[in-house]
Description:
50% of the residues lie in helices and 15% in strands. It is an alpha/beta fold. It has one domain (6-106). A three-stranded parallel sheet has the order 1-2-3, covered by helices on one side.
Amino acid sequence: MSVTVCYFIQSHRDPEQIYRLVRTLHRGSPTAVVVVQHNPAGCALDFAPIADLPRVHSFQATPPQLRSDFSCQMQPYFDAVDWLERFRALWEARLDRMSAYLDTLQEPKE
């Protein structure tokens, strides 16, 4: 099974910078998964500009996080891990099928 890289971005402001970062990561690592978790307490973020990119996923922090409390700083990571775990089996199955298909392409033709 191949290794899949996941970039986890926490954001709370500057939507244009977030869009640039997501596009740059996607362009530089086209097989990686990019997860954006946005805290709407800082500003609104329209996910439409990055919604069409494959393997780019986004969700809002719930409830909006305050940056002063340690538990609130860790909760977004726990939320992201929970989110990733829900999709892990699906991704692994797809990667296994892709690996098997690539193996058939490399088998010598008779």
